[in-house]
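Backbone description:
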Amino acid sequence: MTNRASSPTDVSSLTAAPLAHVVRGDLVESVHLGHLVALDPAGAPVLAVGDPEVTMWPRSSVKPFQAVAMVRHGLDLPDRLMALAAASHNGEPDHIAGALAILARAGLTEKDLLNTPDLPWGSTAMRDWLAAGQGPEQISQNCSGKHAAMLLTCVTAGWDTETYLQPDHPLQVAIRETIEEFTGVPIAAATTDGCGAPLFSTTVTGLARGFGRLAAAVATDPESAEAHVARAMAAFPQMVAGGQRPTTTLMRAVPGLVAKDGADGIFAAGLPDGRAAAFKVLDGAERPLAPVLVAALDALGAFDGDDVDRAAVDSLRERDVLGAGRPVGSIRPAF
């Protein structure tokens, strides 16, 4: 089949395939299309759905690589705060306190953040925040940990802190180079992410490859920047996401797993031996993310170990479809 458009950044390719079915009663009500790949430790595909070579925006799934670039240029944080530097957090009290702690290390305050103001992401955190009479702020936005870490990196490296989001800033140049290094894919396009930081394109396969390299570094290069980031994320998944989000649940359930979601239907994960999976849901929906990732990791045998919390994994295999407040179907993988 041919693509609808010739641009390499056109993710709405006709090569997309079903990733998840939304089943209500006895009928498939909706279908989420997309592109997915699962790679073995050598980077060879074990499973491919759609076109994993399609160019797409990886959104916040690349935060671990942004953190790696920061560590390479002087960012030095304890694991708990390092995990927050790679986070899309809920805005829970620990997350906000952590972002403030990172800023304090730089001698800065939340007024120095340049990310987009927003309410906390988690429903409970948002309710409590609003009840306290607070509105959208930079510190409560889900990327505040990353932005605080960017500022601390700039202070450490002697770089300007007022222009840290400019694409030609030394920090963003380093991040671009790191993303290309880990994904093995030249950046074909650039734009601005929701938080205001530069956003660089990659492919689904490239994203999976990067996560495999990141997670494997703990064993293969334990003193490296990437090993530091991977260890921190695996040790403190609550700081990477929060609450009962699938990212948190999966990293708690599978020792050494490094996982990160991204806006508009992105999820990626890497295992300690280099196995990895990544996908893009074409319509950007969040609801099929967990079932699809679990199915992709299943194809890799990620849950075969004795130390895996299978009950936690099984809780993510399907998502209920409700009728009159009770389950009448489910969102389940289509492959």
About this structure: Confidence is low (pLDDT under 50) at residues 1-6.
